[in-house]
Amino acid sequence: MMRYRFPSHLKLCFILFSLASASLLAAEKPNEKPNIIVIVSDDTGYNEFSMNGSNPLFPTPRIDSIASNGVRFTNGYVSGTVCSPTRAGLLTGRYQNRFGHEYNVPPVYSEDNGLSLKETTIADVLKSADYRTIALGKWHLGYAPKFHPMERGFTDYYGFLQGARSYLPLKKPSVLNRLLRDREPVAEKFDYMTDELGRAAADYIAKSKDKPFFIYLAYNATHGPNEATESDLVTVKGGGGNEKHRAMTLALDRSVGIVLDELQKQSLTDNTLIFFVNDNGGVAGHDNTPLRGFKGSTWEGGTRVPFAIQWPAVLPKGKVLDAPVISLDIFPTAMAAAGVTTSPPQPLDGVNLLPYMLDPTKDRPHQTLYWKNGNKWAVRDGDLKAVSGNSEPTAVKVKNVKNGNPSNEVLLFDLSKDISESNNLAASRPEDVDRLKNLYTEWKKDFPTPTWGGETKKEE
After folding, report:
1. Alpha-carbon separation of residue 221 from 19, 256, 278 (angstroms)
2. Across the chain, what does the average pLDDT equal?
3. Residues 6+ apart with CB under 8 A from 459
4. Confidence (pLDDT) at 241
5. What does pTM read for this prediction?
6. In sequence order, what are the residues at sequence separation of 6 or more whose Cβ sits closer than 8 angstroms to the Cβ of residue 115?
7. Given this model, what pLDDT does residue 5 score?
8. Which of 139, 142, 182 is nearest to 158 (CA)?
């Protein structure tokens, strides 16, 4: 029997009509707007999420469920190679280099260093759309009061301002790493920070039925220091590999599960849009297989991350998309889901991903993506990637590299065939090298000098 194929143009019209109807309903019934949760993990290896690889030492079933209940992007990226720049890009929807946020905020108090006050955040936009907004966990976007989350669109805050801190209660915390409730320090009586942040998110969900909410849940897991609970260490003991990393990842997955379970308990799962990303590639010592490089580099191992989205009421279940996307897309996607039509003053670099997740006939959201961290840079155009400025990772061999791979040499890779960036095509395709170099030069031509330097005594 012949199966009728719904014409693609009519299918697209239906999708657009459905989205428009949902927006109108949200406008008439504010409580029908989707809740929005952005979950960010920290420094974890690409192959330390079971949605991405086959490493049996790092099972992450609760995080994986976001992908299985929604959409997983195999070519998901962040806009930075280290923690603070990625967060600046994610919250503004703009390449952070455009406003001088190229490096980590230095780990010292400053009235000047922080997320530019000229930038609009996703929390600003959703707050204006009558959302309750809370930032939980790691901030890393400035220490002065004017950079505080509650000055950047968040109605509530529970977390710490510095880029890293102990997972255990501190007897004498510093001004930078102490735990804050809104603007005030609180006594540290929790057991383990990763679990505490999951419980805090769950508590916020349980108390937020009066209006839609936006939760920015920024874990410090699995960033150093490498600290795990004794019970988690016992659970992973004897399996091989780095037991502390495994135990910390176990806690991360459990904490995400606390959030998902509370949504289910409150009957909010279907109408909650959830994003999950890692903030950069895994730091050295973590497992980034099969990617080359680590955090801080513009190799794939520095910028490609797990990237998953679920919204059961709207999005398909178990869909896998191979088109490149970037964390800058979270802002416009959330804005569209919330029915916000007024654009921020500054133009966004991100793209609304909803049409691409709903319509399989649409082309890729981005033709070209860029990265810059000092003299380390990369451009991905289609499936070709030019990369320069990175020192050679240990034990990585690359074909067709001259002169020992000096840092200023531009290498070229076809990511559709070479995700590990192991076969340099620059010599055989010089026109493509020049074309991508020109794309990069044009992209960065108006960037300001970075607001602060890239060298600090200690990486946060």
Report:
1. 35, 11, 10
2. 91
3. 82, 104
4. 74
5. 0.92
6. 88, 91, 92, 101, 121, 141, 142, 147, 152
7. 43
8. 182
Residue 27 CA to residue 197 CA, distance in Å, equals: 31
Of the candidate ranges 15-24, 252-261, 386-395, the one whose mean pLDDT is the lowest: 15-24
In DSSP notation, 196-208 reads HHHHHHHHHHHT-
Where would I find the beta strands (DSSP E) of 329-441?
Answer: 368-373, 376-381, 384-388, 411-414
Tokens standing for 287?
A: 């497992």
Strands, sheet with 184-185, edge to edge from the N-terminal-most edge strand: 184-185, 180-181, 156-160, 132-138, 213-218, 35-41, 272-278, 307-310, 71-73, 319-321
DSSP state of 449: P
Q: Mean of the pLDDT values across residues 372-381?
A: 97
Residue carrying structure tokens 């995400």: 256
CB-side neighbour CA atoms (13 Å) of 363: 4
Contacts (Cβ under 8 Å, ≥6 apart) of 341: none
Contacts of 323 (CB under 8 A, 6+ apart): 73, 75, 356, 363, 364, 365, 366
> What is the rounded distance in angstroms from the CA atom of residue 455 to the CA atom of residue 276?
29
Q: Where are the alpha helices (DSSP H) in 191-242?
A: 193-206, 230-236
Over residues 148-170, the mean pLDDT reads 98
Q: d(Cα 295, Cα 80) in Å, to the nearest integer?
A: 9
What kind and span of H or E run contains 213?
strand 213-218
Longest dimension (CA), the chain: 74
Q: Is-contact 217 137, C-beta < 8 A?
A: yes
Encode pLDDT of 72-116 as tens digits: 999 999 999 999 999 999 999 999 999 999 999 999 999 999 999
Identify the band that residue 210 occupies on the pLDDT scale cut at 50, 70 and 90: confident
Q: Distance between CA atoms of 234 and 244, rounded to whole angstroms?
A: 10
The Cα 75–Cα 67 span in angstroms is 14
